């Protein structure tokens, strides 16, 4: 009787080379390092006036001063709290709405036209209306962040559910799965990658929307710190704050990517 040998682990396709993580990180840092070098040389040679572009050492010293004074940490924590609360609310609503549209054709027929129309308005476009309705307090920031999160999460959740093979639902009906069991045992495991695409896009949009709304209507947060630096003509404060905003955005995306990889390993390892 012929036997079929199964390899212990999947083999890589010929012709496809996978760069090690250290090499990828080095490649990713190449452009920023070149930019930093050009910035340093330009500042030393006086190519750009320091009033327009401070030297990297000046920006670093300003960053340390802001950190030691506690201003940077306090405003960072305020912004993080706002984005996490708004993101949690928007992601929850997006998951519910996307799941409902993906599982129910009648519900999608009723909701898709209105949702698609509203989704064409960017999150920042809702700021004037939200200001009139709730003012410029914390509710404004949370609403704008939630709106920026909801749309990509809902669309990607719906797309992930629609990509589930119909045979899986047929098998679930044969086994007399309830709707909750179908969602928990079939829909969620199959749509994890697509859902996390929406979550990562949603978190990026949420962080961007928060910084913008803090620029316009806030007396706290990293966006406010940018405005304060501009008003005081302290571009070193502006650049240092911009660097912190970019670093936090990168860290948030990397955290979601790590969670996604962990869930995908669990999904592959599960029977």
Gross morphology: elongated
User: Helical amount among residues, as a percent range?
Assistant: over 70%
CATH class wording: Mainly Alpha
Poorly predicted residue ranges: 1-19
Oligomer: single chain
Q: From the alpha-carbon coordinates, what is the Rg to the nearest angstrom?
A: 24 Å
- Return the structural class: mainly alpha
Tell me about the biggest sheet? Answer: none
Q: Give me the number of helical elements.
A: 10
Number of domains: 1
CATH architecture group name: Orthogonal Bundle
Order of helices and strands: HHHHHHHHHH
Strand content: under 5%
In angstroms, what separates the terminal alpha carbons? 27 Å
Total count of strands: 0
The CATH topology name reads MetI-like fold
Give the CATH H-level superfamily. MetI-like
The residue-averaged pLDDT reads: 80
Compact description:
The protein has one domain (55-269): MetI-like (MetI-like fold), CATH 1.10.3720.10.
Tell me what the structure shows:
By secondary structure, the chain is mostly helical. 78% of the residues lie in helices and 0% in strands. It has one domain: MetI-like fold (Orthogonal Bundle), CATH 1.10.3720.10. Helix 3 packs parallel to helix 6, helix 3 runs antiparallel to helix 8 and helix 8 runs antiparallel to helix 10. The longest helix is centred in the C-terminal third of the chain and has 38 residues. The radius of gyration is 24 Å and the shape is elongated.
């Amino acid at each position: 009787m012929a036997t079929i040998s199964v390899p212990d682990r999947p083999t890589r396709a010929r012709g496809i080379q996978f760069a090690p993580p250290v090499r990828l990180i080095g490649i990713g840092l190449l452009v920023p390092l070149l930019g930093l070098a050009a910035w340093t040389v330009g500042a030393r040679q006086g190519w750009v006036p320091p009033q327009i572009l401070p030297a990297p050492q000046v920006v670093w010293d300003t960053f340390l001063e802001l950190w030691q004074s506690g201003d940077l940490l306090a405003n960072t924590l305020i912004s993080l709290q706002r984005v996490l609360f708004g993101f949690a609310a928007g992601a929850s609503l997006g998951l519910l709405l996307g799941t409902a549209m993906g599982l129910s054709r009648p519900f999608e027929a009723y909701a898709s036209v209105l949702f698609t129309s509203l989704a064409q308005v960017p999150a920042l476009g809702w700021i004037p209306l939200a200001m009139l309705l709730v003012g410029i307090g914390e509710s404004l920031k949370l609403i704008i962040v939630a709106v920026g999160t909801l749309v990509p999460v809902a669309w990607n959740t719906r797309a992930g559910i629609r990509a589930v093979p119909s045979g899986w639902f047929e098998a679930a009906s044969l086994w007399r799965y309830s709707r909750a069991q179908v969602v928990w045992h079939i829909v969620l495991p199959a749509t994890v990658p697509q859902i996390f695409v929406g979550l990562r896009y949603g978190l990026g949009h949420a962080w961007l929307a928060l910084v913008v709304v803090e620029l316009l209507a806030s007396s706290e947060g990293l966006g406010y710190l940018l405005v304060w630096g501009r008003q005081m003509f302290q571009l070193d404060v502006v650049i240092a704050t911009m660097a912190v905003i970019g670093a936090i955005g990168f860290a948030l995306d990397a955290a979601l990517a790590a969670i996604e990889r962990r869930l995908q390993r669990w999904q592959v390892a599960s029977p």
